[in-house]
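User: I'm curious whether this sequence folds into something compact or stays loose and floppy. Could you predict its structure so I can see for myself?
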Amino acid sequence: MLRTMKINGKIQLTYDNSKNSKMVYDSLEIDNEGFVESDLNEEIINYTINSETLGSFLATADDLIASEIVVEKILNSTRD
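Assistant: Here's the prediction. I'll summarize afterward.
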């Protein structure tokens, strides 16, 4: 009998203020729809990734982190 694998993980991002966390949340939400569950609570964004393969899980986590880094760089460049 072949069993399916379930891989679940959580990523929590904390920002300096709720304005920045909202901007990141809104920027990434469209891309994450259907792949990542997310919720925003003040300065904290919680992401939950559920997958049936390790490769898919890692790709989703990598995409999420890479996208967040881009948004963070944009936020930092607009502060100067």
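Summary: The chain has a mean pLDDT of 89. The two ends are 59 Å apart (CA to CA).
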